[in-house]
Design a protein that fits this description.
With about 500 residues, the protein is α/β, with parallel strands linked by helices. It is about 25% helix and about 25% strand. Strands 3-4-7-8-9-10-11-12 form an 8-stranded parallel beta barrel, surrounded by 6 helices. Strands 2-15-19-20-26-22-23 form a 7-stranded antiparallel sheet, with helices on one face. A 5-stranded mixed sheet has the order 16-1-21-25-24, with no helix packed on it. Strand 13 and strand 14 form a beta hairpin. It binds alpha-L-arabinofuranose (AHR).
Length: about 500
């Protein structure tokens, strides 16, 4: 029988602000891997494709999530990719052996197609340059191809390919996971820092307005973490704008209470790198600011099929997401709000088929459980993140000790008076009677509420049962005398929207 814990409290003071929430925290990542690009985004053979070969149903779901930035073309793929293979007439593009995923790359989708796709879903592109097999010259040439006015070779080639106006791509990644021995052209920290700096100089000489993202450690589990980050930053500080971090969460141990407390780990990851930023800035006596870009994050542990067997668009890491995964994703997004002073970009890895909120069949699309927290945060977290004070009963976990049953983030948009409260109840069994109170100005009313909840942490959607886990609208609780009382079911994610 479920026990009834003492009431939890969420105290909100609109004056206690953490920072402004960057819209780029709601970003995605599309890699030439498995069926993300081919059969995910681009599938001319599908009855659901538009005239450009893009899947209309996928575009619709991506627009619903409202991604603000999209990282491309990899991932490990990036470090062996020659961007010049993916431009110009499709019939003349080479088929290549793709070494990162042992797949066949047809190059039917490349930079111009990606930028058209970004325009179609209203998102900002974030392109990576290959610092594995690629040269610093090729990196600068790609910036010219995308951003320069006509009149020189690469810009004129773009015009010849039908794109007269420069694309103005603002965000650029200096390689991918270059700390990893699995990476094509892996370098040690000093060698990467030297190459990244030289690439950065050339790229910014071509277009000084661009923002550069330096490769940080690919995981906290790397033996070189966080030394790699310090060394790369010390060398490149004045030339870069963001430091990347990557992390994939898992429940390999089958320990759901610890898994549902992973927000602790996500916060400490950011805190370590924020401290590294402050250390390097002080050491360099610099006023230049560098922020964090968490440009690969997600749950990934159930499907580890990474060998493409030299196939086109093989089925690789098509992870199925369940309720507990969705609750981890929801907490991760709350951590982004709680650390928005230093974290300015985040990209879920990835957007379709590869460890993604969306799965495709040639004639159908499935929204996984993780679709809902991502969509709700992206739509409703705006303005300032508030530093809410949370009092909740403790849950004992093997990995993190005692953690509060509730994980909470709050946003407040002064431009329209709208607010949002995002709450995960981590308890597997106990509903949490909860009081939400405001110090100073309380909102006028709670205008809408959404909830994703269930009793089985392993429950997942499938093509046969696509609605097993969806965020349902629930009756908004009454806001009376400056506070809300509600009961949060166990294993739940709740979003409350407020109006001033
Ligand atoms: O997202 C899948 C892979 O995970 C990416 O290619 C790589 O950057 C990371 O290790």
């Amino acid at each position: 029988m479920a026990d009834t814990p003492p009431a939890s409290r969420i105290d909100i003071d609109p004056a206690r602000r953490i920072g402004t929430i960057s819209p780029l925290l709601f970003g995605g990542f599309a890699e030439h891997m498995g069926r993300c690009i081919y059969e995910g985004i681009y599938d001319p053979a599908s009855p659901l494709a538009d005239a450009a070969g893009l899947r209309r149903d996928v575009l619709g779901a991506l627009r619903e999530i409202n991604y603000r930035v999209m990282r491309y073309p990899g991932g490990n793929f990036l470090s062996g990719y020659d961007w010049r293979d993916g431009i110009g007439p499709r019939g003349q593009r080479p088929r290549r052996r793709e070494l990162a995923w042992r797949s066949i790359e047809t190059n039917q989708f490349g930079t111009d197609e990606f930028l058209a796709f970004c325009k179609a879903i209203g998102t900002e592109p974030m392109l990576g340059v290959n610092l594995g097999t690629g040269t610093i010259q090729q990196a600068a040439d790609l910036v010219e191809y995308c951003n320069a006015a006509p009149g020189t070779y690469w810009a004129d080639l773009r015009v010849q390919h039908g794109h007269a106006a420069p694309y103005g791509v603002a965000y650029w990644c200096l390689g991918n996971e270059m700390d990893g021995p699995w990476q094509i052209g892996h370098l040690d920290a000093p060698a990467y820092a030297t190459k990244a700096l030289e690439a950065a100089k050339m790229m910014k000489w071509v277009d000084p307005s661009i923002k550069l993202i330096l490769c940080g450690s690919s995981s906290t589990t790397m033996p070189t973490y966080p030394m790699w980050d310090r060394v790369a930053l010390e060398h490149c500080w004045e030339h870069v704008d963001y430091l990347s971090l990557h992390y994939y969460a898992n429940n390999d141990a089958g320990d759901t209470p610890s898994y549902l407390a992973l927000a602790r780990q996500f916060e400490s990851h950011i805190d370590t790198l924020a401290a590294t930023l402050r250390y390097v800035q002080a050491q360099r006596r610099s006023t230049h600011q560098v922020f964090l870009s968490w440009d690969e994050w997600n749950v990934w542990y159930k499907d580890r099929q990474m060998d493409g067997g030299w196939q086109e668009a093989p089925h690789l890491i098509e992870e199925v997401y369940n309720l507990e995964d969705a609750l981890v994703v929801a907490q991760w997004l709350s951590v982004f709000l709680r650390r928005c002073d230093v974290l300015r970009i985040a990209c879920i890895a990835q957007i379709v088929n590869i460890i993604a909120p969306l799965l495709t069949r040639r004639d159908a699309l499935l929204k996984q459980a993780t679709f809902y927290p991502l969509m709700l945060f992206s739509r409703f977290a705006a303005g300032a993140a508030l530093d809410a004070h949370v009092t909740a009963p403790a849950i004992e976990t093997r990995q993190f000790g005692a953690v509060p049953a509730l994980d909470v983030s709050v946003s407040q948009d002064d431009s329209d008076g709208r607010g949002a409260i995002f709450i995960v109840n981590r308890s597997l069994t106990a509903a949490q009677p909860t009081v939400i109170g405001w110090q100073r100005a309380a909102p006028r009313r709670c205008s809408a509420a959404y909830q994703l909840a269930g009793t089985d942490p392993k429950l997942a959607n499938s093509f046969e049962q696509p609605d097993a886990l969806v965020a349902r609208t629930i009756a908004p609780p009454e806001l009376r005398d400056g506070s809300i009382s509600l009961t949060l079911p166990p294993l739940s994610f709740t979003v409350l929207l407020t109006e001033a």
